Sequence to fold (522 residues):
Amino acid sequence: MADAPTKPTVLPGEFPPLQGIRLVLLTIAVAVSSFMEILDMTIVNVSVPSIAGSLGVSPSEGTWAISSYMLAAAVVQPLAGWVSRRFGEVRTFVTSIVLFIIFSALCGLATSMPMLIAGRLMQGLVSGPMMAVAQALLIRNYPVHLRGLAMGLWAMVVIIAPVFGPILGGTITDNLSWPWLFYINVPVGALAALASWAVLHKRESRKVKVPIDAVGLILLVVGVGSLQFMLDNGNEQDWFSSPEICIAASIAVVALAFFVPWELTDPHPVVDLRLFKRRNFLVGALSVSVAYFAFSGINVVYPLWLQTTLGYTSTWAGYAIAPVGIVALFLAPLIGKNIHRINLRAAPTFAFCVFATSLYWVSTLNDQASFGQLALPRLLQGVGLALFFLPLNQIVMSGVSPNELALAAGLSNFLRTIAGSISTAVCIWMWNDRTDFHHGVLIEHITNDAVPNIAYQAQLAEQGLPAGLNFAYIERIIGQQASTLGANDVFYMLSILYIVMIPFLWFAKPPFGAAGAAPGGH
Fold:
């Protein structure tokens, strides 16, 4: 009697690909949750003045709601692989969504800036694993021949979310109130969590108990947290004349100084710094981080300048900065499809030139600029966004073995997110500092015997402005001009940063094919 055919052995955590409606539900759930997580990085940007005014703090202090979220997310990102292996990808993903919507609700209920910052920190901490695990779930549950489509859909979500963030944030703030920026996550996240659990609860990945680098994690959290505290509070406390800032700086230096040798010698490092020994990873990761530093600075300063100086509402500030994603939305899939045909050093070189040109353009605008003049440079930046992000990520992954892909992606994402978090604090400080400088220069020309001042006060009197209000009115005009000149200086400095980075790109060494991928351009 012939032996009956045996079924192929299925290892724990491995399942046949999903099909039909279950695959559609998974795609929607993962896309919605990822959209929600990325959206929360930009949805607050245009609403900082409203949040700051409501909670009784300055706009620069209001940006802590942005940097605290990005800082917390960055610290947890390297742990995504350990958490998902320890507790299972499905449980990690669903739990992350549930905790995210809980802390979103608490952010909306905040009645003070410390409460909001605490909520945003927790939001970032629980969202850290969400993005990495979402990608893993798509790859593990999609048919092999459709995985390219899955990653294409993923890329579309990553690009669309930052576009909708400023528009949605401005619309909600102007028509409802800023707490609804966070309340909106509750129903959306609940549906994503329910759909994910319904489809995947019987398809849990294999759980593995692996040690965690507790010392490295503590050094990372303390070092990066102290650095961020110093950056966020330095401007308000006159930097190193404040004992608190000096203490925070000292702790950051000591913790990070110990962190580097510890991670290089620990057998299970929380951040595998040995990857920096590879030239392409070093060039790609640092280039992405510096480019993202400058891009994040634009995204924070630009809407603040539009609202605090030019009188834009949150909604119209969102419309003005959103065009950056329109071009990128159409270019990204095209570039991704033809990534193997593109010269991966020439593409970001061109992109950095585009960003430098558009930023120089913005640095020449004044407070009388029209909406079109303010929006067109952002449209041009969309070309640069698509042309640097995808090619540089290909360089980062070039030569990385399959078992190191998650580590390399986690470290690159960590550096990029940290760069964005630091950028928020640094660029706001630069803007405030340059504004104060220009205010001092301009006020020197306002003297009682200065002919232009006498003529302008006469003009104000002819327009019916009471004599006692002349000084206040002139002071407001000087403040607007100083703020605009300060913002111009920030944009100009960021444009120079892109130019300076161009030679560094060419230290990357072909071929650029990642493990298992077609080689990239040379």
